[in-house]
Design brief:
Number of strands: 0
Shape: globular
Order of helices and strands: HHH
Structural class: mainly alpha
Helix content: 55-70%
Number of helices: 3
Radius of gyration: 11 Å
Largest sheet: none
Strand content: under 5%
Distance between the termini: 25 Å
């Protein structure tokens, strides 16, 4: 699925968060809604779970 494919991309969690914040700063309406989905997917499929 797309979620597991995201981990093979060159963008890491830091770059993904930066893109989310830039979109939010630009007041992109869907950025907030989609950022929560992205964060959930990153946590769900992370090869390095939070401790």
């Amino acid at each position: 699925p797309r979620r597991s494919a995201a981990w093979s991309s060159p963008a890491g969690p830091e770059e993904i968060m930066e893109a989310i914040w830039v979109a939010a700063e630009m007041r992109a309406g869907g950025a907030y809604a989609h950022s929560t989905l992205a964060l959930y997917a990153m946590d769900e499929t992370s090869p390095h779970p939070h401790q």
